[in-house]
Write a structure and sequence with these properties.
Elements (H helix, E strand, L loop, with lengths): L1 H59 L4 H16 L2 H23 L3 H5 L1 H36 L3 H5 L14 H4 L7
Helix pairs in contact: 1-2, 1-5, 2-3
Length: about 180
């Protein structure tokens, strides 16, 4: 009788442990989804600011058509991207185009002094900071989740329960470089 109670106690403890482990994996997966949603909110904010910025620049630098078109093309690519990898690539392209746009603005003193441009630039700069924070938070959550599903004993349950590794939101080498502007 005592052996049956001990075995039953061990089974109950194991069941509770498995339930706890599963709930923890679900919690981590949901944190990743939430972190991705926060990135998405900031990216949409950025996308909404860009047309206003481009229109402001158009009035002062109408012959910089190629730069303005590259910003719009990059924005359009970013709005249609899906998933961390595709979004990261499109956002890196957009970041590069915006850097070129701000570099071009240096050549136009009237534009640099325009209050609307300055406000849009400041708003976009603030948004960029929030995007960077959201990306860092997302990657932190991915790290916690990936570590949890790859460590013992969760690795035993993760595969059969369809907990799969998530991708990080990474910048590419091109977006890390300096912008080259020639006049």
């Amino acid at each position: 009788m005592v052996i049956i109670l001990i075995v039953l106690g061990i089974v109950v403890v194991l069941v509770f442990y498995v339930i706890s482990l599963y709930n923890n994996l679900v919690k981590l997966r949901n944190r990743i989804e939430n972190a991705w949603a926060q990135i998405d909110v900031q990216l949409k904010r950025r996308w909404d600011l860009i047309p206003n910025l481009v229109e402001t620049v158009k009035g002062y630098a109408s012959h910089e058509k190629e730069t303005l078109e590259s910003v719009i093309a990059a924005r359009n690519a970013a709005t249609t991207a899906t998933g961390p990898q595709q979004s990261a690539g499109a956002e890196n392209m957009l970041t590069g185009a915006l850097r070129q746009l701000f570099a071009v603005s240096e050549a136009y003193p009237d534009l640099k002094a325009n209050q609307n441009f300055l406000e849009l630039q400041e708003e976009l700069t603030g948004t960029e900071g929030r995007i960077a924070y959201a990306r860092q938070h997302y990657n932190d959550q991915v790290l916690k989740y990936n570590t949890a599903i790859e460590t013992f004993p969760a690795v035993i349950l993760a595969g059969p329960l369809r907990f799969t590794e998530r991708e990080y939101f990474e910048a590419d080498d091109e977006s890390r470089g300096n912008v080259q502007v020639e006049f």
